[in-house]
Amino acid sequence: MAKKPQSYRRGSAIMRGSQIPTETADTKLLRSRRTDPWRVLRIQSEFVEGFGSLGELGNAISVFGSARTSPDSHDYRVAEEIGRLIVERGFAVITGGGPGCMEAANKGAAEAGGTSVGLGIELPFEQGMNPYLNLGINFRYFFARKVMFVRYSRGFVVMPGGFGTMDELFEALTLVQTGKVEMFPLVLVGTEFWTPLVDWIRGSLLERGLIGTADMDLFSVVDTAEEAVDAVFSGLERIENGSGKH
């Protein structure tokens, strides 16, 4: 079990000691229905804060990846370089605000003199926001946070990661596939890591007719930071020129 944190952030409140809650706002929402009408106001406030804080951000790319990635790893160095290269193209970098790959991308963006954004989430044993943020927003609810990623990003770069990374990836794929958002680039970094998943998508989903052939073009797989950033911006250029194909 993860070590209990010394401090805990819930929205604008910071709690320590006996005040640290035993469950998150998401947990309460999904367990109890008695306070649903009042909870709507709290949910509304998260959207208002997110929209207000990010409304003037301008163009941005989100970088996803594992919070467990070590600072001395290859993936960390690649994510840091991706953050730097995105800023050099004139875009801001958005991450989940935590450690690992998120920290790396924020570090690259901040040290390149760009805008580095973190959208954090309340977790039972959270590790806090990384120190490389120009703007950090902490959310109680996953779904409010997800809206901000899609609303204020022009594309996603996805590093190797766990369930949270997969959740963000497949939600984005679904939104693009169903036309809920305009086509935007989805770039997966790390051929060795992503190939088994891509093979499963092709062999189990495509071959059974559960997705269409065109759905395989909703994402691309690359290996280097330069390839990742080139793929994102090439995709944006094609979209602006009227073609949604990768």
Structural class: alpha/beta
Alpha carbon gyration radius: 18 Å
Low-confidence stretches: none
Number of domains as seen in the coordinates: 1
Corresponding CATH architecture: 3-Layer(aba) Sandwich
Strands in their spatial order, largest beta sheet: 6-5-4-3-7-8-9
The H/E string reads: EEHHEHEHEEHEHEHEH
Question: Could you tell me how far the N terminus lies from the C terminus, measured between alpha carbons in angstroms?
Answer: 42 Å
Mean pLDDT: 88
Count of DSSP E strands? 9
Task: Specify the biggest β-sheet.
Answer: 7 strands, parallel
Residue share in helix: 40-55%
Protein name: Cytokinin riboside 5'-monophosphate phosphoribohydrolase
GO molecular function: hydrolase activity
EC number: 3.2.2.n1
Keywords: Cytokinin biosynthesis, Hydrolase
What's the structural blueprint in terms of helices and strands?
Elements: E1 7-10, E2 13-16, H1 25-31, H2 36-54, E3 60-64, H3 74-88, E4 92-95, H4 101-111, E5 116-121, E6 135-139, H5 142-152, E7 156-158, H6 163-177, E8 186-189, H7 191-206, E9 220-222, H8 225-240
Parallel strand pairs: 3-4, 3-7, 4-5, 5-6, 7-8, 8-9
Antiparallel strand pairs: 1-2
In short:
With 246 residues, the chain is α/β, with parallel strands linked by helices. The chain is 45% helix and 15% strand.
Can you walk me through this structure?
The N and C termini lie far apart (42 Å). Helix 2 runs parallel beside helix 5 and helix 3 packs parallel to helix 8 (225-240). The chain has a single domain, classed as 3-Layer(aba) Sandwich (Rossmann fold), CATH 3.40.50. It has helices at residues 25-31, 36-54, 74-88, 101-111, 142-152, 163-177, 191-206, 225-240; strands spanning 7-10, 13-16, 60-64, 92-95, 116-121, 135-139, 156-158, 186-189, 220-222. The chain is an alpha/beta fold. Helix 4 links the parallel strand 4 (92-95) and strand 5. The strands form 2 sheets. The protein has a 7-stranded parallel beta sheet with strand order 6-5-4-3-7-8-9, with helices on both faces. It has a two-stranded antiparallel sheet with strand order 1-2. It is globular. It has 8 helices and 9 strands. Helices cover 45% and strands 15% of the residues. The mean pLDDT is 88.
